[in-house]
Amino acid sequence: MTVTKKVDATKTRYGDDEALALLADIDTLIAAKGKKIETFDLKNDRPNDATLLAHMMGPTGNLRAPTARVGRTLVVGFNEEVYARILGG
Predict the structure, then answer these.
(1) Is the overall model pTM greater than 0.70, yes or no?
(2) 87 part of a folded domain
(3) Residue 43: inside a domain, yes or no?
């Protein structure tokens, strides 16, 4: 896998509008917080923006890190099993 864009979350802020813009051309959003994993089907059953932002944004009002786009899937937050599955490892 090749990383096409890397952004340092401590230097670049992604607010609500920027976070929602990341969902363009995304079919699946996976939001991971520790062992809790929420999966959203954006293509067939997209929740409202408030619900999506509640899972994407951290307590500081910035996009949670890490955030990775893999194909048409966006993963927000970290869970080892999720990354192993989407990265094929």
Answers:
(1) yes
(2) no
(3) yes
